[in-house]
Amino acid sequence: MTDASEKVEVITSVQRRRRWSAAEKMRMVEESLELGASVSLVARRHGVNPNQPFTWRRLAAHGAFTAAAAGEEVVPASDYRALQEQIRELHHLLGKKTLEAEILREALQHAGSQKRIAAARATAAARRFPVKAVARTLGVACSSLAPKPAPARRRGRPPAPEDDLLARITAIVAALPSYGYRRVHALLRRQAEEVGQPSPNHKRVWRIMKAHGLLLARHAGGTERRHDGRVAVPERNNRWCSDGFEIACDNGERVRVALALDCCDREAMSFVGTTAGISGDDLRDLMVAAVERRFGRVNRLPQPIEWLSDNGSPYAARDTRTFARDIGLLPKTTPLESPQSSGMAEAFARTFKHDYVRVGDCADAQTALRSLPAWFTHYNEVHPHRALGYRSPKQFIRAILTT
Known about the structure:
The protein has helices at residues 22-32, 39-46, 51-61, 67-70, 77-111, 113-125, 131-138, 163-175, 181-195, 202-211, 280-295, 313-316, 318-326, 343-357, 365-381, 393-402; strands spanning 239-248, 254-262, 268-274, 305-309, 329-333. By secondary structure, the chain is an alpha/beta fold. Among the domains are: 22-70, no CATH class; 163-211, no CATH class; 239-402, Nucleotidyltransferase, domain 5 (2-Layer Sandwich).
């Protein structure tokens, strides 16, 4: 008699999930395909759930013998081969595009930053690619591709017309080509004061001269020795200085000039010029001419005045020093190896050569000697001096006498 009662299996311990190998799964699938067998019978025989052999049999029916071990869904072999071929083509295309990108990036590196930025801006302006991708690919900053703000509108009044001022500046520079913008501004200010008009700003004069190429080249002199002394004095007729310099003419002749200069108002009181060397007699004549120019025909100065010079033989001669003391001058010579002590006379000689000799007519010695009086007159009457507030020596003297 058959027992039809339901049997229940009681699990009394922790059971681990059984792992089936691919061979065992295939054996169960083959058993389920035998004549008179079923999935439920095979599952009951091996103690597994019927859905597992059913799934394995379905996967095996599609040719996925290896996938049965992992329990994954697979594709047919033909599709697999087609996908592999497509992957190989994509790899080839990716390598080709990567090589092209590297070549372009290397070429842009040699083109310079400005050309790279220009190319990046043109590419980003087309709006086909993200700006960040363009900047990263071409190796430029994203900020350089940002749109530039429109220039701000000019504030304030429009600039004053400069045609008239430019014409006056050009006339001054044509007559005095060695003048910089400061002395050109001084002459313009002097012209404006004569007609009662406001003078132009010196910065405006500099801007116009720079825009039209009228500025002087910057002086690039060497480092000079430190000199803490002061040659200039605050009052006139307290110290005079003297020095000599040489003018080289175009035909090779030489003209030697000596002068006397007031250390306060910078007036060139007297000068002597000769084609021979400066002698003691020439210096004594220079002293007499300076005294008569300042004090008239007197035998002796009303007060002692220092006579500053270097240690040249005409200045250091006994007769020259004795004559200077007899007329009231106090001869003072510069210390040895200290040419800065006669720096005012040295500076005058340098300025005179730069502003008059270099641009004047020095074809021969006689021409240069005939030009000396006009040059010294122009220096005293017109030449602006920075220490005098860009006034000429005569203007400075007249300003002192009227106050």
